[in-house]
């Protein structure tokens, strides 16, 4: 299976323009043999909204008009696509990612960890938990951007038998350490493939840093962007590599299994309610 990660600029509040560019990139990557195309967080709408009222008109249901259009493209190209978009909530919007196949919406994820930035200042926190989706080629989990800073997210999906975690993201200036180190670490500590695709460009004073990356189960970098320009990353993906968690470095002398070697009875404090107040939230 070949993954394509599309690092691209996005036009704020211009859904039609963004959708046309997404479809064009799907055609381009399909012509290169990519069976899975991954786009950034909020690729359909942009991210730096100044109010909930500004964002609400651009949100959609999932499934909805955009997912139906992309399903038709997936059917034509024999491709699967992951995009970030705003989803309608009962009293606002979710920052969501959706995976679409030729059969329709395979699944969606609503961002759980919300930084005080962009549309996440106003978005409704995700309410669906973490889920691994059964794609014909792999078991796939979805996260979005800031979720990568919380290793519990990836570990839960690894325990749900994910082969690949996909992270549409909007890393701005200041997120370099996450882009350069956290993605490899999430892949290595869980023995999974990890695909983090960022955007580039500028939006309302925020610069986005690119640095998209696809990593393998040993934490190795399979593909990475070369700068802050638009770029497409390609990497081959074999889920069987993610399913064998045992690493025999020196037979009978150096063997590790990061799932079997866990001591969950020692980790209780991690799941205790913390009572801390997130920045600028009631």
In short:
The chain has 282 residues and is of the alpha/beta class. It has six helices and 16 strands.
Provide structural commentary:
- With 282 residues, this protein is α/β, with parallel strands linked by helices.
- It is 22% helix and 30% strand.
- It has 6 helices and 16 strands.
- It has helices spanning 15-31, 52-55, 65-77, 151-159, 176-190, 239-243; strands spanning 2-7, 36-38, 80-89, 92-101, 104-110, 132-135, 138-142, 164-168, 193-197, 200-203, 206-209, 213-215, 221-224, 231-236, 246-250, 254-257.
- It has a 6-stranded mixed beta sheet with strand order 5-4-3-2-1-14. It has a 6-stranded mixed beta sheet with strand order 6-7-8-9-12-13, with helices on one face. A two-stranded antiparallel ribbon has the order 10-11.
- The longest helix has 17 residues, at 15-31.
- The protein is globular and about 60 Å long.
- The N and C termini lie far apart (45 Å).
- The model has no long low-confidence stretch (mean pLDDT 96).
